[in-house]
Structure formats: structure tokens, C-alpha cells
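Hello, quick one for you while I still have it in my head. A protein chain has come my way and I'm curious about its shape. I'm sending you its amino acid sequence along with the C-alpha cells. I'd be grateful if you could look everything over and explain what you see. Here's the protein in full, and shout if anything looks odd to you:
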Amino acid sequence: MTSPAPARRGGFLFAFQAASDGPDARHFFLVSPGLTAPPLAGALLMVVAGLSWATYSLIGRGSLAPLADTAGNFIRCTPIGVILILVGLVYLRPNAYGLAYAIISGAVASGLGYVIWYGVLPHLIRSTAAVVQLTVPAIAAAGGVVIIGETLSGRLLIAMTGIVGGVCLALLAADRRRRRMSALSHDG
């Protein structure tokens, strides 16, 4: 297996940086005027979440029944989820709208997202899957704007453009490389 071309690596890194909290010019703009770093505990939890999603995706490549696998995974996660909710209720008192949004977001949107992802994943090569999954923050942000009326700020638009633009660069570079390799194999 050959390594990704420089353009594909560049697109991946551009999208990854736009989706992460990396210290580049886009992020200084996106966090201004506060220019503060996220809390360490929150940042570490996001790293764990990202690694967990990557592991879940690698395991899911072999799924033959995405809906059944996702339902089983949700059922197995329910006990720890209930414990975390109960612990959270000690500190916060959510209102009915917050609970409804959490249930719709967690059970419905995430569940459907996992089913779709598991269904598509076996048809993608690993590097393409890694790049495509970087669009999740942009998709979630767009959903927030469309579904619950969050503000489409200039910062959000720049971040979404950086993510989707980087993914497009990486995918276009991979396609160009595949076509070039195919043409070379037909010539030889």
C-alpha cells in the first residue's frame, strides 16, 4: 500500500485543524475576542471522544447489519448513560426542552447517523473514511443552524468552510491520484 499523496495529506490536515482546537490563525480568529483555551478536562474528553469514534468506525467496517449493531451498541451503553445522567442531575436541573433536545439528538440523530455511517463504511477505504468523518462537526453545526435556529456567525461559517474545504481537497487529491495510477496501469 502506498502512502497518501502530499495534496491529500494537506487536505486532511487542513480539515483536521479546522475541526480541532489546533493553534493556527483560523482558531485564533474563531475564539476571539476571548482568546482563551478550552478547559483541560473538556479538551481531554474531546480527545477521548475522537479516539472512541475512530475505534467505533474501525470496528464498524465489518458490520453486516448496521441497524441491529447500532441498536445493540445503544442498548449496551444505556446503563452507563443512565448513571451519568443521574450524576449530572445532582449538578443541573434541565428543563423539558433541554431534555427533549438531548433525547432527539442522542437517540434519534446519533442513532440514525451511526446506522448510515455503518452502512457506508464498508464501501470506503480507510483513508477516505478518516477524511470524510472530519465533516461531522460541520454537519452538526449546520443541523444546529437549520433545526434549532442557532446563529450562523462568521466564525462558524469560516470553521465549516475550513473543514469541508479541507475534506474536498483531500478527496479530490485522492481521486486525481487514483486516476493517474489507473492510467499508468493501462499504459503499461
Observations:
- DSSP finds eight helices and no strands in the chain.
- The longest helix spans residues 154-187.
- The two ends are 19 Å apart (CA to CA).
